[in-house]
Structures are given as C-alpha cells and as structure tokens.
Design brief:
Blueprint lengths: L6 E7 L2 E7 L3 H21 L5 H34 L1
Antiparallel strand pairs: 1-2
Helix pairs in contact: 1-2
Protein name: Cell division protein ZapA
Family: Belongs to the ZapA family. Type 2 subfamily.
Subcellular location: Cytoplasm
C-alpha cells in the first residue's frame, strides 16, 4: 500500500503525543489509541509505582492476552460451526 492511501493522525496516549500511520480510518486509529490510553491508566491506578516503560509492557501483555483469549474463542466457534455444517 502506498503512503498516499494511509491515514496519518496524531493521538494522545498517557500524556504523550504519537503520530500513527495506518490503512484504517482515523476514527479506528483514535479508538485504538483511546483503548490503549484507558488500559494504561487502569493499570497505573492499580500500580502507581510503575514507570512508563513497565506500564507500557504490562499494557502490551494485557492486550496480547486478551487477543489470544478471543482468538481461542473464535477458533473454537469456527470448529463448532464446521462440525454443524458437516
């Protein structure tokens, strides 16, 4: 995909400005940034001693954990659907 077809937007995540480029709409990019910001603030409120780097890593670990759970659920549902069709 060429640079012309990408969305470029500046977002605020945990008090820092980031310029993000992607194929998705600006509203999608804003939503992702907002969800990351929310998760960082949630983790920070429970662990106020964490520095920003550790907070970012824990946020990433949480996001990947959630992704893997959803992927497992989707795989299971696809298997069940395949079994129903057969």
């Amino acid at each position: 995909m060429s640079v012309e077809n990408k969305t470029k937007i500046t977002v605020d995540i945990y008090g820092q400005q980031y310029t993000i480029m992607g194929a998705e709409s600006s509203s999608h990019i804003r939503l992702v940034a907002s969800m990351v910001d929310d998760k960082m603030r949630e983790i920070s409120s429970k662990n106020p001693q964490l520095d920003t780097s550790k907070l970012a890593v824990l946020t990433a670990v949480n996001a990947v954990h959630d992704y893997l759970k959803l992927k497992d659920e989707m795989d299971q549902l696809q298997l069940e659907l395949k079994n129903v069709k057969d």
